[in-house]
Fold:
Amino acid sequence: MSKGLPETRTDTAMSELVPEPRPKPAVPMKPVSINSNLLGYIGIDTIIEQMRKKTMKTGFDFNIMVVGQSGLGKSTLVNTLFKSQVSRKASSWNREEKIPKTVEIKAIGHVIEEGGVKMKLTVIDTPGFGDQINNENCWEPIEKYINEQYEKFLKEEVNIARKKRIPDTRVHCCLYFISPTGHSLRPLDLEFMKHLSKVVNIIPVIAKADTMTLEEKSEFKQRVRKELEVNGIEFYPQKEFDEDLEDKTENDKIRQESMPFAVVGSDKEYQVNGKRVLGRKTPWGIIEVENLNHCEFALLRDFVIRTHLQDLKEVTHNIHYETYRAKRLNDNGGLPPGEGLLGTVLPPVPATPCPTAE
Amino acid sequence: MDKEYVGFAALPNQLHRKSVKKGFDFTLMVAGESGLGKSTLINSLFLTNLYEDRQVPEASARLTQTLTIERRGVEIEEGGIKVKLTLVDTPGFGDSVDCSDCWLPVVHFIEEQFEQYLRDESGLNRKNIQDSRVHCCLYFISPFGRGLRPLDVAFLRAVHEKVNIIPVIGKADALMPKETQALKQKIREQLKEEEINIYQFPECDSDEDEDFKRQDAEMKGSIPFAVVGSCEVVRDGGTRPVRGRRYSWGTVEVENPHHCDFLNLRRMLVQTHLQDLKEVTHDLLYEGYRARCLQSLARPGARDRASRSKLSRQSATEIPLPMLPLAETEKLIREKDEELRRMQEMLEKMQAQMQQSQAQGEQSDAL
Structure:
């Protein structure tokens, strides 16, 4: 795979498949300066093009989970985000649809292609969340599912003969739908986010935002942000993972002004000013989903898909997954989890380098 | 002068004048999850600012909050008629993570009012009975769900035979017209399925004109009412000022029948059926409570059903009715009854013994 080209400091994955953790340089690198005395053109900058070609060939995985009470428009929003029917809407007015008694986890995969790039998108739905009279611990099945995916990945990773491309079923992003009450977060929202913000990237989203006027929206967002801060809930993009000043300023702006995104979703098109737009038609006007004056759907879409998709995956891999892995290894006394993965007992993973005693 | 003219046709006017002098009182309860626009709607309905100084608690405070019952009173006067309106609010309902039995305080409250009235009615000074019974409960259903949620069903089943329920869909401007229709349909089906009795509007008299009948039918067909409330007046340059909510894509007019059912609800609740709600509360719901109570007194331990048809169905979540605290005299009567019974038992025993010893005596005589 490596053609002898050194990995640059601005590390982007060589293979799109499993981004590797940043290597710790054994010898501190001398500050890199632009050598303006190049006698000719080397061609290092074609690395970008090579990576792009690779990505297009292999495609990539993205797993997004949606959590929230039923009826908040989760499936519609996901369909709108990816411009395809990737989520089956619980048929709204179907008599036979009953609210499940416990939270179920339903993962449905689709392959979407755009501009030659293939994405294997998995949408993980959580019907039954928050719908019962007693919702204590209804986040547990969700936490369990997320950890199971980490476990699956870990098992593959500690194999002797590893697959070239470990299938990545880990949840990269969890969209949490907040009900637009206009007052504040509900106790269940707080409980869920407290428990899960440490294991997965949570992006809080205000659902069905067409019920709030501009003033109500900004007041509500402010209150929600404050409540999240007061309760120590770090949603994505987490402050502690900002890498440099550039990231920090960009993310600060998003964290303090835009989030949580107040969205409206729709799969119906209407004619507005000669164009066909996705929207909702009411007797008092048409709400355009992609109009920034109406709602922040476009901001959410750009954020999740166009700018931070890769980062979501990296944070999941480098941070959440590593946290899980470290915990598992520690619990196991430094041993990899599970015994006899391939019917053999694996040698212990040394904590410090030491000669093998075999 | 008309010799056949007796003059009692003026009776309604006399009644009218009397009640105008007395004034009306009306107790309205609002229930439902927080954030459904209850307070705004009440303010819109009665053009008041009952909720001006409220503080909505934060989520972390609500984690351990139990449901409380709050009462607010306001006197409204219009056209010379005074209405003393009491609003019963239920903050905290449906907020917690675990909402099991969160409706019990509400049920107890309603029954307490009945109990109070029963005591007053049975008491000696009946001139100034204050009627604090709940005449109507506006139950707010979320427009974001897919019909009634489990909590809605549990609450409605617990109170439907104790108070007039009018189901209402709050924040109805979240829905497109088709969605509103579908949601209403779903809710109506669920109410039927779960056998929940909401307040039934009385039928029109047959001699009303067609227009009125049509209006009446339309109003009945729009239950549950899909409402939007607003305390703000929007002045869109050019058009006349209206109560509404201004969005970037248009303005919802609260009093526009094409936008929501606010007008229907207001007409029905305030203009036409205020008196009927009170009557149904008194004649049907209160009488049912009274009958249940007194029967359980007469036969302690027995749970008899009320004779009225509407209340002959036992709701699944019925809780044991509170025993009416007995007045002193009734207690004494009870005690005397018990004594008499005991004395009678003893007498019977003694008689039986005497008969036995007599029989034995005869036997030994015979031997």
User: Anything to note?
Assistant: Residues 301-323 of chain B have pLDDT under 50 and may be disordered.
